[in-house]
Amino acid sequence: MIKDFEKWIDMVLEKDFPEEMVGIVFNLYEERDNKWSVELVGTSIFDADDEDWRCEEVYDTRENPFEWQQDTTWEDVLENVIDIFKKYLEEGKYSDKLKEYQGVGTGFADGDAWILYEKNKKE
After folding, report:
1. In DSSP terms, which residues pair with 105 in a beta bridge?
2. How do residues 10-31 score in pLDDT, each as one tens digit?
3. Contact indicator for 101, 115 with CB cutoff of 8 Å
4. How far apart are CA 120 and CA 31, in angstroms?
5. 61-113 per-position pLDDT tens digit
6. Which distant-in-sequence residues (6+ apart) come within 8 Å of 73 by Cβ?
7. CA distance 86 to 101
8. In a designed cystine with 23, which of 32, 46, 73, 118 is the match (CB 3.0 to 4.6 A)?
């Protein structure tokens, strides 16, 4: 699943995005019958202190989400996805492109956001 996930991320990130896009969130969804999906959403604002930034959408991949089947809990899915994205931010093919944006996050669309990367944040 990880390799297929990375191929999907590469395919999505090789495209051009709207100029007004400053943040990226990878929204997770729990479907039925142990199915899960993730979409990329580009936003016109980014604010690590206010999760509503995820609602200011200017781009999305809703028509082409990454989908997989896995018999597990939502907590495990979230933990696995966070690990995959952190690794991708370190060594993924388009990690530099992701780091051009003010921030990158993930989380279930109806839950909390996890900030994976914040540009110019003091480490």
Report:
1. 25, 115
2. 999 999 999 999 999 999 999 9
3. no
4. 35
5. 999 999 999 999 999 999 999 999 999 999 999 999 999 999 999 999 988 88
6. none
7. 15
8. 46
CB 38 within 8 A of CB 27: yes
Contact 26, 39 (CB under 8 A): yes
CA 28, CA 5: separation in Å to the nearest integer? 13
Dist CA 99 CA 120 (whole Å): 10
Q: Cα–Cα distance between 1 and 21 in angstroms, integer?
A: 28
β pairing state of 23-30 and 103-108: parallel
CA gap 115, 38 in Å, rounded: 16
**Maximum Cα interatomic distance, the chain, rounded to a whole number of Å:** 42
**Residue 57 one-letter amino acid:** E
Main-chain phi, psi angles of 88, to 5 degrees: -60, -40
